Structures are given as structure tokens and as C-alpha cells.
Amino acid sequence: MYAYDEIDRTLVNERVSEFRDQVKRRLSGELTEDEFKILRLQNGVYLQLHAYMFRVAIPYGTLATNQLRALAHVARKYDRGYGHFTTRQNIQFNWIKLAELPDALEDLAKVGIHAMQTSGNNMRNVTSDQWAGVAPGEIEDPRIWSELIRQHTTLHPEFSFLPRKFKIAITASDHDRAAIKIHDIGLRLIKNEKGETGFEVLVGGGLGRTPFIAKTIKHFVHGRDILSYIEAILRVYNQYGRRDNIYKARIKILVHELGIEKFSREVEAEWQHIRNSSLQIDDEVIEDIRSRFTYPAYEKLPHMPDELRQAAADPDFEAWRKNSVAPHKVPGYSIVTISLKPTGGPPGDATAEQMDALADLADKFSFGEIRVGHEQNLALPHVAKRDLPALWKALDKLGLATPNVNLITDIIACPGLDYCSLANARSIPIAQELTRRFANHELANLIGRLHINISGCINACGHHHVGHIGILGVEKNGEEVYQITIGGRADENAALGTLIGPGVKFDEVADVIEDIVEAYLALRERPEELFMDTVKRLGVEPFKERVYATR
Amino acid sequence: MTSPLEQKKIKIAGPSIVTANRTWDGIVVYRTATKSWSADLSEAAIVRNSDEAKALLAESVADDVGAIGPYIAPVQVGADGKIEPGNLREQIRRTGVTIGQSAQV
Ligand code: HEM
Ligand code: SF4
Fold it and tell me: Do A27 and B92 touch (CB under 8 A)?
């Protein structure tokens, strides 16, 4: 867990009283909506189809149980009893009243939670691996660096008025769970030959209307130089970035237009000016941040406790364990992913009751800590293996033990036309129907790892470009139509999917996905060949044929 | 953001209304013929040509304390005068999400 310092607490509290005053002036008519909009966006407040939407940051995806309880409280008291976890380690409340927002912010501020950096053209919430600090083989806890960047960029003038929003993600494992290649800046924590910590820096990733996979701009930037290097990138971006056209304002467009070589030369030149400035980080600063992250007092526990051996006889437990439980860096412990993808449910939603109960379970079984991942699931990062059977039983009662992590029903979906004012088509009902079609666990397991990602418009909040199967809703003559891509991925081998053909209607989407899956099952050479491998081996043609031959 | 009034031409294809979200709580509201807002679509003022639409929108924009983000939306008016939303988006704004119960327990 991380303990905020006094500066942060003061800042967060000041923000709340400022916003209270702004809301008051807005409601009295002293401020117009045009004047108020930028102020509300600075506090995570959007206008959606049905109501205001309130987006709250969960920095690098780490939550303490009192914080999760505070989120549950906000859901219950100010909203309709649930919240929606997003792909960027945020939570959104969909029905909050403007008049009550200052109270909600105040309640969250008491536990150190805020909505800064969740909207607007600034540096957004820095995201990280949800398994940070516990993943086996991790080089170093990437949250220390996320926190360093968070502190440096929060409300920093240079990062507060960018041409467009700006997103950074950090990973410190070989397997990238933070999707760094689809971020404006992606940082991969590595060590050089001398054993010093630094980063491979990637730049220019992003989805939306013009998707790009990030490119490596520098193979090694020393940890002490990372702020100056990021600043150099931001300066070049600020200097060239297009403010005239919001579709061209993201850094990915600039990197593409200048080319990575020219862009990196410009950054290098800028960096030489500033790298030896006050931006160079002292070891003490890093050590101070490091000391604020506390790790549990792990016990020495057996790798295969009796409890686990006995529970293995229960096929339901085993089904869940196999896909929800991952190895931990400390023997005798596990990382448990909590699926927020129940059959027929909207991906990423959790009720206030579930949040409260999960906080209790985290206190009991995970040293009071919860994580939020970009797949719209949660995790308990420090569960003793002997406690797994008891935890599973408790989760199952809460509807939080759907054994589908990384399977076809573990779908990422944006809110789409059910909530979002920018949407062209619905996303959630498509996801719901697919979870029903593939509800049979044996079938889903037979299919194996397969990620479906759905967005309700080209902004790509549901990351459809990088779904193994991507579904994008568009509008055609007043009707919802869906374009299907296959072959995308968001991990260390990130790639954009390929469109398989003309869009299909709302009612046909689930049938088309079934066809694609059937084609895959027929085409794969052996059961271990994953969907992605088959697509890689054969290309999109056989899938296209299968889908359109009869349509 | 450009104000909706700066749109050069406001063209409407059929009966239309002005809708927005109420400022203090955000709920969906419709501009009425009595210069106020109602959560009930049946109380919405119907406009049938671009001049009427423009006037209704102008008056709605002016009431910035009452509601935000006003825009013109199509409706269908039945023989009995019953007003129905003219597209899926407005249908969803009127009747709510189509996803059944959220976050099932
Ligand atoms: C419901 C209100 C939302 C609105 C109005 C909204 C709006 C947008 C817009 C306009 C963009 C494109 C920005 C650009 O390319 O410059 C965007 C990107 C994005 N949104 Fe949302 N979004 C919403 C909800 C969500 C949710 C619920 C999620 C997660 C499930 C999400 C995750 C993202 C991500 C990851 C991107 C970046 C995609 C990229 O790399 O371009 N958003 N959003
Ligand atoms: S992808 Fe489009 S529809 Fe979905 S949440 Fe983002 S802006 Fe809204």
C-alpha cells in the first residue's frame, strides 16, 4: 500500500472546497456552463446521456479496503448502488447529481481518493500492472515510478494544458499487463548491464480514429533521468502538436508524421538541455517513495497446503482456481483475479454490496489490499494458498467467482449507447449476449484464451483494435452496425486487428462471433493452438469465408 | 465548444423537440411550450420548421441555469398526439439503459 504525504492530502482537500464553491456558483447562475465545463472536467465530471458521470482515479490500480468501502458508499449514497471499473484504472459513477458531487468528493477525499487527472487535456492517471509488486520475475515494483511521475505531473502547468489528453503506462514484467504499447508513452522497466534501473521508452501508441502501436524511442533511459526525458518528449509535443484539429492532436499523429527517427532526434536535443537540471532525480526521492509502499508481513507457508489438496476434488473450485489464481512472488501465496464479468452482466460493473463484501474479504485474506486491472477485473494480490478454498466460497456467494478470466466471456466493453453521449451503437448488450452464448464453462475452456473487446464508437474506449476479436459499433442509416476485426492484441506483441468484411447488424453479432469461434475450433491444429496462433498461421481469409459465405 | 446557435442553418426533417440535461441533477429534460423544462416527453414543445426550431433552441440555450447541452432531436407524433422519440439514442435517453439490471448480484 502507499501512504500519501501531507502535500497530497492538503491538495486533495483544497480541491474539494474549491469545487464546492464552483458548483454553488454554477447552480446560482453566477457561472455559465461554458465557464464551468473546464472546472467540472478537472474534477472528473462529464455529461453523459442520462446524467452526469463522475470518474475517479485509482492510481496504478492499488486500493486499500477503506478506499473500496468509500467507493461503495458513494455508489450507495449518491448513485444507483453500483460503479463501473474502466480500462484505465478508474471507476465511473453514472447517475450522480451535480448538487451532490462536492459531498461525494469530500467523502472520497477522507480516504485519499480524488478525481484529478481523470479528464481534460492533461496528463492522465498513470497506469501500471495490476500485479505490480507481487508478480514473480518482476524486476522492481513499477508503482514507485508511477508515483514519481504522478507527483511530478499532477497539476504541473506544463502537463495541464496539453494539445490533448496524455496517457502513460508502466510495466516491469516481461508479460505486459499494462498495455503500454497503446499509450502515448509506454515505459518498460529494465536493468542495464551495471544493474541500474531504467526504462525502455515507447512513444506514440494509441487507439481511437487513427490507431498506432507505440514505437521504441530509446532503449535505455536511466531511472534518474526519466522525468527529464518525459519532459523532453512533452516539450517537443507541445511545440509541434496540432491544437487546430482534435483528431490530429494526439502525440501518435505527430510521431507518425515526423517519423520516429526525426521525433527522437528532436527529443534528444531537447533532453540534452534539461537532463542535468533539477529534473534529475536524487536517489533519496526514489527511496522516500519506495519507503511509502509497504508490503505485507508474509509468512513462510507451504506451496501445497492441505486445504488446497482437499479442495482440488471439487471440479467447480478447480475450474475457478485454474483461471483465476496466478503464482505470487512469495511461495505459499497467490494472486487472485476477481472476474467482474458474470454471465449476462455488464462488464466491469460492481455493486456497492459487492465492493463492501470484497473489502471485508481483502481484510481477511489479502492484507487489506485490492487491485484494479485494465481488463475491467479486480484482483486480491496477497492470498495465502491455504485460504483459496474459503475465499472461493465467499466470492461465489457474491457472484464474483465466474471462472472465466482470460476466456471468451471475459469481455472488455465500453459503456456504449446505453450511457455514452458520443456513442453510435450499444456495446454492453452485445457483451451480455456473448456471455450467455458462451456461458458453458467446458466450451469456453475448450476455446481457451480469447479476448473480445467492444467499443460503441471510434474513440475505442473498449480497445476493440487490440481485441483478439474486436467489435466496433457504427451507425448506418439510423441503425446500429458492427465491424468485426480479428488478430489484434494488447500485450508485449501488440498488434492491430484486421477487418474481416462488411459490418453486421446488432442481432447478428453473436451469431457471427459463434461462426468465427467454430471456424477456429475446426481449423486449429491442436488444442493448445490458441485463437491468436491460428489467425497468425492462416490470416483472416478462412474466417471471412466462414462468416460471409452464408450471409 | 461552438454554441448550437452558431450553426448556420438548422434543418429539421420532421417534428422535433429540444432536449437537454437538467443542471442540478443531470436528468433528461425536454423544453416545454411554457418556457420551462419537463422530464416528461409528452410535455415537450413540438417544432415543425427550422425557424421554430431555431427559436426554441435559442430560448433553451438562454436558460443555462435550468439545463445544459440543449439540442434539437427528432420525434414521431402519433395521430392521437402521442410523442415518441425519433431514434434509438433518444429512446434510450427516455426509457433508460437497455441492459436490464446493472451489476447483478
Ligand atoms: C462514458 C463516458 C466516456 C466518454 C465520454 C469517453 C470519451 C473518450 C474519448 C473522446 C476518447 C478519445 C480521445 C482521443 O483519442 O483523443 C476516449 C479514449 C479512451 N477511453 Fe473513453 N470515454 C468514456 C468512457 C470510457 C470508459 C468506460 C472506458 C473504459 C472502459 C474508457 C477508456 C478509454 C481509453 C482506454 C481510451 C484511449 C483509447 C486510445 O488509446 O485512444 N473510456 N474516451
Ligand atoms: S468508445 Fe465511444 S461509445 Fe464507447 S465509451 Fe468511448 S466514446 Fe463512448
Answer: no
